[in-house]
Amino acid sequence: MAKVDDVIPANGYSSTVRKTLILGKDGTTPATVLNPVYVQSVSAIDAASGTTDGVTVGNTTTVVLAAVATRRHWVVTNDGDEVIYLAIGANAVLNQGIRLNAYGGCYESTLENAGLAVNAICTSGGKNLCVNAVTNT
After folding, report:
1. Burial code of 65-80, b = ≥16 C-beta within 10 A, e = fewer?
2. Sign of the C-alpha dihedral, residues 80, 84, 88, 90?
3. Across the beta sheet with 98-100, what order do the strands follow?
4. Number of domains within the chain
5. pLDDT of residue 51
């Protein structure tokens, strides 16, 4: 099966809406399914600013993101060669909280925790954590 993506402007936002239709084996006819599904996702970045950063995580709790009430979303990715642990709204502790596996383990905020402080820790220290955040302006 294949899929077709149509990207169209979302009304009132400087963003896009992606609508996906799953196609059959021939690549042109919609797949025969009992309940066809169109998947739609909206990414609204109107009146917001994004940041991309890297944080060096230590072997003691390290601030990744300070608490910011207007932050709407964040994503962190472990770019190092050992496990990193996250804590949201608290100090990070080894072997507790959210585990990010080495070489690409990642975590994405929810609406409920996007504005809270994020801390991280790893065993040896000096490991890189890639950070992307979107904050209302």
Report:
1. beeeeebbbbebbbbb
2. negative
3. 62-65, 118-122, 84-88, 98-100
4. 2
5. 73
Quote the pLDDT of residue 52: 78
Which domain, by its residues, includes 39?
2-43
| Closest by CA position to 114, among listed 61, 63, 69, 53 | 69
Residues 35 and 54 in one domain: no
Q: What is the pTM of this model?
A: 0.65
Average pLDDT over residues 68-85: 94
Phi first, then psi: what are they for 91, rounded to 5°? -70, 145
| Residues 18 and 76 placed together within one structural domain of the fold | no
Cβ–Cβ under 8 Å, residues 134 and 74:
yes
Distance CA 13, CA 35 (A): 31
User: How do residues 16-46 score in pLDDT, each as one tens digit?
Assistant: 344 444 555 565 555 554 444 443 333 333 4
Tokens of 100: 């990010």
